[in-house]
UniProtKB/TrEMBL annotation:
<dbReference type="Pfam" id="PF14833">
    <property type="entry name" value="NAD_binding_11"/>
</dbReference>
<dbReference type="InterPro" id="IPR013328">
    <property type="entry name" value="6PGD_dom2"/>
</dbReference>
<dbReference type="InterPro" id="IPR006115">
    <property type="entry name" value="6PGDH_NADP-bd"/>
</dbReference>
<dbReference type="InterPro" id="IPR008927">
    <property type="entry name" value="6-PGluconate_DH-like_C_sf"/>
</dbReference>
<dbReference type="InterPro" id="IPR029154">
    <property type="entry name" value="HIBADH-like_NADP-bd"/>
</dbReference>
<feature type="domain" description="6-phosphogluconate dehydrogenase NADP-binding">
    <location>
        <begin position="1"/>
        <end position="94"/>
    </location>
</feature>
<dbReference type="InterPro" id="IPR036291">
    <property type="entry name" value="NAD(P)-bd_dom_sf"/>
</dbReference>
<feature type="domain" description="3-hydroxyisobutyrate dehydrogenase-like NAD-binding">
    <location>
        <begin position="97"/>
        <end position="141"/>
    </location>
</feature>
<protein>
    <recommendedName>
        <fullName>6-phosphogluconate dehydrogenase NADP-binding domain-containing protein</fullName>
    </recommendedName>
</protein>
<dbReference type="Pfam" id="PF03446">
    <property type="entry name" value="NAD_binding_2"/>
</dbReference>
C-alpha cells in the first residue's frame, strides 16, 4: 500500500497512467482529495478504479480483520472479494468517493468513541470510583472480550 497522497498521485497519474493497457484494476486507499481525479483518469484509459479505504488499525491489519469500504463497479469489487477477504471484511459502498466518505464517517465515530471513553473515566475518577472496579463493572455493558480497545 502507498499511503502518502502525493506519492499516489505521482505514481498513478504521472507514471502508471502512461504505461498500462485498458482493463487494469487500480485499488486506491489513500486520500479523498485524489479519488475523483484518479477515477476520471482511470475511466479515460479504460481502467477499473476501486476506492477502498480501510479501518481497523495496525492490529486489524495484522489479524486480517480490517473493515474495507469499497466503491467502484460492483462486479469488479465482487471479483476482488477473495483478495479483500485476506485483509478483512469488504462492504460495497456505491459510487465514486463513497468509500472515502465512509472512511471519514468512521473516523468521526472512532474519535467520538475515544472522547466518550476518556470522559467517562475522568468522570469516574472525579466521582471517587475505583477505576479498576469501574472498568470491570462497565465492561459487560457494551464492551465485550472482542473489543479492539485495550484496557491497562
Amino acid at each position: 500500500m502507498v499511503g502518502n497522497p502525493q506519492d499516489v498521485q505521482r505514481i498513478i497519474l504521472e507514471s502508471v497512467l502512461s504505461t498500462l493497457n485498458p482493463g487494469v484494476v487500480i485499488v486506491d486507499r489513500s486520500s479523498p482529495s485524489l479519488v475523483y481525479e484518479i477515477y476520471a483518469a482511470a475511466c479515460k484509459k479504460g481502467w477499473w478504479f476501486i476506492d477502498a479505504p480501510v479501518s481497523g488499525s495496525d492490529i486489524g491489519a495484522r489479524q486480517g480483520k480490517l473493515a474495507i469500504f469499497a466503491r467502484g463497479e460492483r462486479s469488479v469489487v465482487k471479483w476482488l472479494k477473495p483478495l479483500f477477504d485476506l485483509m478483512g471484511r469488504v462492504t460495497y459502498m456505491g459510487g465514486a468517493g463513497c468509500g472515502q466518505s465512509c472512511k471519514i464517517g468512521n473516523q468521526i465515530l472512532v474519535g467520538a468513541y475515544l472522547m466518550g471513553l476518556s470522559e467517562v473515566f475522568v468522570f469516574a475518577e472525579k466521582a471517587g470510583l475505583d477505576l479498576r472496579k469501574y472498568k470491570g463493572a462497565i465492561r459487560g455493558g457494551g464492551l465485550d472480550e472482542q473489543d479492539q480497545w485495550r484496557w491497562s
